[in-house]
User: Which sequence fits this backbone?
């Protein structure tokens, strides 16, 4: 889709401002129309493949295209009508496969977001102009499809199409344009607290836990009733093309079944036709359910068991998550502000659960099939009771625990400061004889890193010169030399003594 719409006309910078604005609006409208055409074309290809592979088609190519148009409108929330029924009474089809809606909505979101990309040489429309242009282009194609589908086997209700299509398109395009503009802050009423962002995040986390817990319950129930689900799958059709179509329909309805399971865990349960309800208390009035794999996970008729009340862990977990996310930030709030944020998050979680319950249910026919799915206001009320009853006390407890932990930390810090003050006073009174508090750690001076210098190889030492050996004297000669040396020393000593005596005689005075 983006490859087609990205090739918008390039205008020179010197073009008039009015021409550039007009070109930008045309580009946005073209993107919206292409998004609608791509989504419709993908469904048409899938339906035509099923029609070609079917051994017993009910109609020609025109009927298959009408079915594709009806399914595309159903993905936007439009209620359809089956005129050809066994009883002759037109039967409404109001259960919207939530997974089927992901494709068209994602394409429209991308178109709205990409139309405001500031590319070189391409004009960019204003936020308001992009919103109206993309919405207008998409709704133009949707209106043509609704008119084409009026006489088909799955005809769209005019009033339902006139209400659901603009609401879905406006919400999706608004989100895409707001994202492209950098998600600027939205002005809120004065009565909304400043911490509304934390409450919104906590509410979204609670809704995610509810739906995720419902998906786990659905998977466990299908595994428990695997035999019944397989039997229902095989009884619907005997050809591979039909079984493939049933498989695709079951996959598209998995998010709906997860929401139904979440409503079951909350307590109100969901309707299985006129007067039949499935809840943890039990299944009332034997419902006349059609053979479908996902419906095989519904509990049998009768009162519920104590094991069935184990599903209450899902709303309890949602309440815990709401309470935890309400005090997840380090904002310094009082108990009253913490309770208000948690209560606001619980209300948001309840609103999200009610909205999903309204989208996941609807009629599948007349008579016993007129009511199918959870009742939105009961589901929302139960979600409010669970999340507020668990989340608000938990948020207050966490806030008190954090406050107490902060007091302990402040007390410990204050005690340390008092000890330092007393020690400083004692040091001043001692005249500087006492050490500092806390004692200063010796400064460790890092030794400089000396790079190793390569030493040159030592020069080779010269070879020693050989010295001639002196032969040792004979023993007789050695004794003669010793005797001569002794005599010489004795003569020298005698001469020295006689000289000293003569000097002494000369120094004596004469006697009278």
Assistant:
């Amino acid at each position: 889709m983006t490859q087609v719409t990205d090739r918008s006309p390039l205008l020179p910078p010197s073009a008039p401002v009015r021409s550039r604005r007009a070109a930008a609006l045309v580009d946005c409208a073209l993107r919206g129309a292409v998004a609608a055409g791509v989504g419709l074309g993908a469904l048409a290809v899938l339906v035509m493949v099923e029609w070609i592979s079917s051994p017993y088609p009910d109609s020609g190519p025109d009927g298959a295209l009408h079915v594709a148009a009806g399914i595309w409108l159903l993905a936007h929330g439009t209620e359809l009508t089956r005129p050809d029924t066994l009883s002759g009474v037109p039967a409404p089809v109001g259960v919207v496969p939530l997974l089927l809606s992901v494709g068209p909505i994602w394409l429209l979101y991308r178109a709205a977001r990409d139309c405001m990309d500031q590319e070189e040489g391409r004009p960019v429309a204003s936020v308001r102009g992009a919103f109206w242009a993309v919405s207008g282009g998409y709704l133009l194609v949707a209106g043509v499809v609704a008119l084409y589908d009026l006489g088909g086997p799955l005809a769209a209700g005019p009033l339902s199409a006139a209400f659901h299509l603009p609401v879905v398109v406006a919400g999706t395009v608004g989100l895409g344009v707001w994202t492209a503009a950098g998600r600027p802050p939205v002005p809120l009423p004065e009565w909304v607290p400043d911490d509304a962002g934390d409450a919104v995040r906590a509410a979204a986390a609670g809704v995610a836990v509810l739906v995720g817990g419902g998906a786990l319950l659905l998977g466990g129930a299908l595994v428990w009733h695997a035999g019944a689900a397989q039997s229902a799958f095989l009884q619907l059709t005997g050809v591979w093309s039909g079984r493939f179509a049933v498989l695709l329909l079951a996959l598209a309805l998995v998010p709906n079944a997860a929401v139904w399971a979440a409503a079951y865990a909350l307590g109100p349960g969901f309707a299985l036709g006129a007067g039949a309800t499935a809840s943890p208390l039990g299944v009332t009035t034997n419902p006349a359910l059609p053979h479908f794999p996902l419906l095989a996970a519904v509990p049998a008729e009768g009162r519920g068991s104590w094991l069935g009340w184990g599903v209450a862990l899902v709303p309890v977990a949602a309440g815990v998550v709401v309470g935890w996310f309400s005090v997840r930030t380090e904002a310094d709030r009082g108990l009253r502000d913490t309770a208000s944020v948690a209560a606001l998050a619980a209300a948001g979680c309840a609103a999200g659960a009610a909205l999903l319950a309204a989208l996941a249910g609807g009629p599948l026919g007349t008579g016993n099939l007129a009511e199918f799915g959870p009742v939105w206001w009961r589901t929302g009320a139960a979600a409010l009771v669970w999340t507020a009853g668990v989340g608000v006390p938990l948020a207050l407890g966490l806030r008190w625990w954090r406050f107490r932990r902060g007091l302990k930390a402040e007390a410990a810090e204050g005690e340390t400061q008092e000890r330092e003050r007393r020690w400083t006073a004692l040091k001043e009174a001692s005249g500087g004889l006492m050490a500092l508090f806390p004692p200063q750690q010796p400064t460790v001076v890092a030794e400089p890193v000396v790079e190793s210098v390569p030493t040159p190889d030592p020069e080779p030492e010269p070879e020693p010169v050989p010295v001639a050996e002196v032969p040792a004297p004979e023993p007789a000669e050695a004794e003669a030399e010793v005797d001569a040396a002794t005599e010489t020393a004795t003569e020298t000593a005698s001469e020295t003594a006689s000289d000293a005596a003569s000097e002494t005689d000369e120094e004596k005075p004469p006697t009278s």
Summary: Residues 78 and 159 are 9 Å apart (CA to CA). The beta strands are 80-82, 91-93, 155-156, 270-272, 277-279, 282-284, 302-303, 372-373. The chain has 14 helices and eight strands.
